[in-house]
Amino acid sequence: MKAVDVLVSGQVQGVSFRAYARDQARSLGVRGWIRNEPDGSVAGHFEGDEEAVDALVAWCRSGPSYAVVDSVNTAPSIPSGSSHFTIRI
Q1: Domain limits for position 31
Q2: What is the pLDDT of residues 61-74, one digit of tens each?
């Protein structure tokens, strides 16, 4: 089990980044959440199998086709016990 907090910066709002990330997370079996931040970045908490979490973080480095990702920062976190992946508002 691996858990990370993620912050994605760049042109990542208004390009369906959260919806595509949710779809990727669900296909990988990753649990947690993702949300828009006031500064224009996207923050998330990903947890699950180490390979799946790493794959979702790797996907965040490019995101959906209209996104322009400048940086992806991760920090180890504690699993929250989420049973699904959601978009937070």
Answers
A1: 2-78
A2: 999 999 999 999 99
